[in-house]
Amino acid sequence: MTMPSPDDATLHAFVMAMPKAELHVHIEGTMEPELYLDIAARNGIATPYADAEAVRQRLRDAHDLPSFIGIYEELIAAIRSAQDFRDLAMAFFAKAQSQGVVYAEVFFDPQLHLERGIPLAAIFGGLARARIEAEQTLGFKARYIMCFLRDRSADDALKVLRDSAPWRDEFIGIGLDNPEVDGFPDKFAAVFDEARGMGLRLTTHCDVGQPNTVAHHWGALDVLKVERIDHGLNVLDDPKLIDAVRERRIGLTAAPTLFYTEIPGRMEYRAGAIKQLLEHGLLVSLNSDDPGMKRSLYIGDLMLRAARTVGLSRDMLVQLARNSFVTAWLSDEERDAYLAQLETCDTAGA
């Protein structure tokens, strides 16, 4: 197989056309500044931002996870109605499809909205409308993963899980995000046990470079018994963890995203870790995380940047896409169909 230079336009065309699944993206974090301003105006919300560039300037204040989450929660406060959730999701589905995504499992954070008085009916109603509309009008298939916030109580997560029973068909699994706190992941064991009993699939964030990260990864595997770990780059810190993740066929949904503020070495480290995980034979995929609030870089953009930064070959990029389908929560029939699409694309050279 001929491998073009990472700067070759041929590679750009190949990456953007290559079928892929998106497994680690927060629907709230896909909100572009322009859409934020439109939603705020529709809801009669006064903002301090004169235009989209002013919103981007605000996003430049994010330099780590806590500072980003503070801005993130400020901006998503504009989301109020089922229409807002529908518009948010449809904008993402169209953009993702333009970069070769054919299937997505999308996080949403109901607690962030319930705390603002937004009812579950509005959240699920808007997301369901977008899911159905995307499949009917775009041929784009999506499913949702309900995430709970690690810096809130497990009791609250359990209540939301139970209150969401009327909309059980609208989410395929559960996850955990927001800052890692004392007690993670053990404090969520009962929540995950109940979700498992409901037939839900299981994942959790283990963010990059956090305190006690190796112990948190082991807890995700042995206490929460997850099928995937979101991020998961610190698996590389423990040879035994590498072996366990490989043997258990745990998916790692890595995200080499970039804040608006340049952080030296961030892409080099994250893309390099993804390359190492591939070389260890682990089921790592590359994902976009919060693209609307992080430089408008979507999955194809990030694949190309990673390739240029650390020399990912075309074969490696294809393997990342293959891993996304292998670790997606698909039926065997669906998975085989997507893998066949990928094989056809790879053989044709895009």
Structure write-up:
Helix content is 50%, strand content 12%. The protein has 350 residues and is α/β, with parallel strands linked by helices. It has a single domain (9-343), classed as Metal-dependent hydrolases (TIM Barrel, Alpha-Beta Barrel), CATH 3.20.20.140. An 8-stranded parallel beta sheet has the order 1-2-3-4-5-6-7-8. Helix 10 (213-222) links the parallel strand 5 (201-206) and strand 6. Helix 12 (266-279) crosses helix 13 (299-310). The longest helix has 18 residues, at 120-137. GO terms for molecular function: adenine deaminase activity; metal ion binding. Residues 19-342 form the Adenosine deaminase domain.
pLDDT averaged over residues = 96
Secondary-structure element series:
HEHHHHEHHEHEHEHEHEHEHHH
Q: Classify the secondary structure makeup into a structural class.
A: alpha/beta
How many DSSP-defined strands? 8
The CATH homologous superfamily: Metal-dependent hydrolases
Explain briefly what this protein structure is.
This protein is α/β, with parallel strands linked by helices and 350 residues long.
List descriptors:
alpha/beta; 15 helices; 350 residues; single chain; hydrolase; TIM Barrel
Secondary-structure map:
Blueprint lengths: L8 H9 L2 E3 L10 H10 L9 H8 L5 H12 L5 H17 L2 E8 L1 H5 L5 H18 L3 E9 L4 H10 L9 E5 L11 H9 L3 E6 L6 H10 L5 E4 L7 H10 L2 E4 L11 H14 L3 E4 L12 H12 L3 H14 L4 H17 L2
Parallel strand pairs: 1-2, 2-3, 3-4, 4-5, 5-6, 6-7, 7-8
Helix pairs in contact: 1-13, 2-3, 5-7, 8-9, 12-13, 14-15
Protein name: Adenosine deaminase
Keywords: Hydrolase, Metal-binding, Zinc
Cofactor: Zn(2+)
